[in-house]
Structure formats: structure tokens, C-alpha cells
Amino acid sequence: TGAIQVEVKRPINFLIFLNPHSGKGNAHALFCGNVQRMLQEAEIQHTLIITERQNHARELVREADLSQWDALVIMSGDGLLFEVVNGLMERKDWKEAIQTPLGVLPGGSGNALAASIHHYSGLQAVSSEELLISCGFILCKGLVSRLDLTSVYMASSQRLFSFLSLAWGFVADVDIESEKYRHVGAARFTVGTLVRLASLRVYRGKLAYLPIENPMSQPSVVDSTASFSHIFPQSNSDTCSPSNDLLGHTLQNSSNSNNTPKSKESIPSPLSVLGPTDLLLNPLNQPVPGHWTVVQDEDFVLVVAMYQSHLAEDMLAAPSSRLDDGIIHLIYVKAGISRRSLLRLFLAMEKGGHLNTNCPHAVYVKVKALRLEPYSPKGIITVDGELVEYGPVQAQIHGSLARLIAG
Ligand code: ADP
Ligand code: MG
Prior knowledge:
The protein has helices at residues 27-41, 56-63, 78-89, 94-97, 112-120, 128-141, 170-177, 188-198, 243-246, 251-254, 339-349; strands at 13-18, 45-50, 71-76, 102-106, 144-154, 159-162, 165-169, 203-211, 229-231, 293-294, 299-306, 328-334, 362-374, 381-383, 386-388, 393-405. With 407 residues, it is an alpha+beta fold.
């Protein structure tokens, strides 16, 4: 899979958070069934915490004595892992804390990271309880890989850490609107997509990004007539981004920003207090750096930035993505697409075929950072499937910042 195994000792002592309301509401029953037996057979000790409310896990992780555990595991959907990741990054000792191996047992309705891990292991796609068994087996094997995290800035200057996706438009609306269909499990996204297709609309805003290619050799404006534009890298991503080198360098590093290439001189001050510094980003109230690509189109149907392969159990939206490729896979669909073509895209996405449909409205580009400025005063933006503050938002990927038990 390209992921690096960095742990020799198998994690055998887990702290497991379980959201009893996730998915169809049967996560606890599923845990007490097959999962517990698998852990027992693999001689894995665990402490189970059933969360009582939203952000319960996040608060516990922020305060926990992490030396007691080999791994923090969630049994829920992506939302509970989002809490754990952000709880770790909100700690003063975030740099060590985020090294704690994470694990996922899909018990929610949105199990995109679980589906991605299963996909990376090369196995044929499965869903619901079969996916749970597969991920249980992966946890028992205990191979620890590196995991990219993306830092996401909101207009209020709040910063979040994201392991999966940043979405606006169609996909974000479906994500939130479909929560009322949670009782159908992962099928909620299919139902939500069909409902949204009936009331398809346009989302206006400005999108800009830093491609993974050598930014200076790129055109500053995307040709809006290009068909399903794959804007492929010309060089290895490692050669053009400083983000890997900067991991863990916080305040000292920011005073050093004169050492960064000339094109980044305009970066005035560190955009962080805790956590890694986002050296690729300008403050939101200033224009994006001059070498970024500004998308000409301002009418969109959807914009999704993702860093793993799946958006949901049956949505292989970025087939080439890997756990720690250090790449934001940016997909956007321009307004003007017919309902029929959009439906065709979503149907093809189940097997990852949407990138070969030659749809002139859809664009796929690999980036290191992006900024999105919606024009409408109200709307929905999601991070890892969770509703976040609506408004201008920007993000930068930090390669291999976290660790994850994967196949
Ligand atoms: P699903 O995939 O079914 O949506 P998630 O893991 O994403 O499952 O959880 C859904 C939401 O519930 C998330 O916002 C999470 O933070 C929140 N949450 C976690 N524990 C609880 C709880 N005990 N009660 C209510 N909400 C919770
Ligand atoms: Mg969720």
C-alpha cells in the first residue's frame, strides 16, 4: 500500500470509545458480538467507554493519561474519530499525543476511513458488518501506519484537524441532510443523494489552491473548458513541498520563515499556537499567495477536498489516495452539469470510475493547500462529515502527522 510500518510491537492495550447512537444505533450490540470475541482471541486488553454526548470523547482525550494505552480506538462513524483527533491536537503535548496509534471499528453510518483502510489492504469492497469484521481483523494484526492530517482554518480563526474531507455544496448538504436517514445505515448517502438531485442547485464562491506540482511552473488559472481535468503531478510530491520537513516545528519554526522560498515571503505570521504551523497559508483576510491557482469558475455544484480514498462506504471518490501520500485530492464539479450526468458520476463513483467518465464539468487536481470563499451568507461546510462554521475556509495538509492501525 505504500504505507510505512513504524511499530514493531503490536498494540495490545486499547482505549475504545463507542458512540451508542451512531449508525443504526446498534454499535454496542455489534461490539458485544463479534468484535469483543476477536479482541479476546488476539489477546488484546481493552477499556470501553460509551460516550454520553457529543464531544465527550474529545474532552476525555484532551485530558487522558495516554501512557496507559497502546491505541485509541473508536467504534462509531468518522465523527467520533474526528473528536479523538481534535482532542489530541488540543493538548499542550500534541506532538507526542498525536503519535498515539488510532484505530477504527466501523459502527456508524459514515464509515469512510474504515472503507479506505479496507480498500488499501487490497481486499474486495464490502459493507456494513463485513467491513466491521475486516477492520476488527486489521486492528488485531496491529500494523501501525502513518496518517496525513489536514489543518482547516475557519473565519473565526478556529483551527480544526481533519483526517478525511472538507466539503461544500452538494456533498456537504447530503452529508448533513441525510443524518435523518441514519436508521438505514450507510445507505443514507444514497437516499440523500437522490433527494438532493431532485433539488439540485448552484453554489457560488471562489476556489483557489496550491497544486502539488512545482507551483511556479503551473498556469495561474485553470482552463475552464478542459474536460474532467486531471491535473497530474510532474514530480514527486516530496520534492516540492516543505510540509513534511516542518512537522512538529511550531513557534521556533515560524520565526524562521525567512528561510522558506521567496514565493512564501508574504506569509506574515504563524497561523497557529498549538500544532504544526501552516506555512503554505496566508491569513484568510489577505489574498492567497500569488503562485496559487485561482479557479476561474465561481459557480459550483460541489467542492470536495479529501485525503483518503472513500467519502462513504460505497463512494470511492479518490481511488489513488493513500493514508500518507501527503496529498489533498480536490474534486470539484462546475455548475451546468445535468442531473443525469451528476447521477452518472455518483453511480460510477461506487467503483471509482467517475474519473474516467469524461465529464466536462468535473475537475480533479492534487493539491497541498486550498482556500474556499462561499459567496452566500448561509450554507453548509463539513469537515470529516461534521458540520463546521460556515464561511471562508482554508486548509493545508501535513503529511504523516498521525498514526493509524491499518492493514
Ligand atoms: P455516524 O457515522 O452514524 O454519523 P459518528 O461517529 O459520525 O456516527 O457520530 C455522529 C455524531 O454523534 C458525531 O457528531 C459525534 O461527535 C456525535 N456523538 C458522539 N457520541 C455521542 C453521544 N453519546 N450522543 C450523541 N452524539 C454523539
Ligand atoms: Mg458521521
